[in-house]
Design brief:
The complex is a heterodimer of chains A (about 110) and B (about 120).
Chain A: E1 9-13, E2 18-23, E3 32-38, E4 45-50, E5 53-56, E6 61-64, E7 70-75, E8 84-91, E9 102-107
Chain B: E1 5-7, E2 10-13, E3 19-24, E4 31-38, E5 43-50, E6 53-56, E7 65-68, E8 75-79, E9 88-95, E10 111-112, E11 116-120
Parallel strand pairs in B: 2-11
Antiparallel strand pairs in B: 1-3, 3-8, 4-5, 4-9, 5-6, 7-8, 9-10, 9-11
The chains are: A mainly beta (about 110), B mainly beta (about 120).
Chain lengths: ~110, ~120
């Protein structure tokens, strides 16, 4: 399984854009990059997934450079409710490796 | 549409006892997974069912853990006998099969349940 490295924690303020970068140096050709969000006492929740370049949905954008050895999750204008742990996963087939995640703390 | 449900939400048992956790996946999802987070560590994969068959059980820690998915619907995870180190949160997830860019199911979104918190005293 390809492992990922991401910052342990980040602080932000409401209304700011937050970028969380993840490194995955040993990503394989067939791997997808996926981000999950987890609130306390809940299961992880899918945010976004991509293979290369840029992917955008209603909640986030995912930027993946050509070498795919890193990726950046971008959350536009965060609110207090975005305080959570964010996991970067490299997914091949069905086995997920979660890593330690990034604890995002959004302050008022 | 109902999400993935897990029962019970909490379970407190004594060392040596048996506990059975249940997971009901989203209707129509052939793939069902079990994960666990032990003692604040990382969420770790336990096993994966495709319908009633075990596709991958490489993450099961030892033979005290038994997972079943009779009929390909709900699944149970039994721990017998439970040990102190089994305490943690057990998550279940389910997904559909989707063809990815490589023509097989390399892309799928797993929907997680709220987890069962197991405490072994």
């Amino acid at each position: 399984l390809a492992k990922t490295t991401q910052p342990i924690s980040m602080d932000s303020y409401e209304g700011q854009e937050v970028n969380i970068t993840c490194s995955h140096n040993n990503i394989a050709t067939n791997d997808y990059i996926t981000w999950y969000q987890q609130f306390p006492s809940q299961g992880p929740r899918f945010i976004i997934q991509g293979y290369k370049t840029k992917v955008t949905n209603e909640v986030a954008s995912l930027f993946i450079p050509a070498d795919r050895k890193s990726s950046t999750l971008s959350l536009p204008r965060v609110s207090l409710s975005d305080t959570a742990v964010y996991y970067c996963l490299v997914v091949n087939f069905n086995k997920f490796y979660f890593g330690s995640g990034t604890k995002l703390n959004v302050k008022p | 549409e109902a999400g993935v449900t897990q029962f019970p939400s909490h379970s407190v048992i004594e060392k040596g006892q048996t506990v059975t956790l249940r997971c009901d996946p989203i209707s129509g999802h052939d793939n069902l997974y079990w994960y666990r987070r032990v003692m604040g560590k990382e969420i770790k994969f336990l096993l994966h069912f495709v319908k009633e068959s075990k596709q991958d059980e490489s993450g099961m820690p030892n033979n005290r853990f038994l997972a079943e998915r009779t009929g390909g619907t709900y699944s149970t995870l039994k721990v017998q006998p439970a040990e102190l180190e089994d305490s943690g949160v057990y998550f279940c997830a389910s997904s559909q099969d989707r063809l990815g860019r490589f023509g097989y199911s390399s892309y799928n979104e797993q929907f997680f349940g709220p987890g069962t918190r197991l405490t072994v005293l």
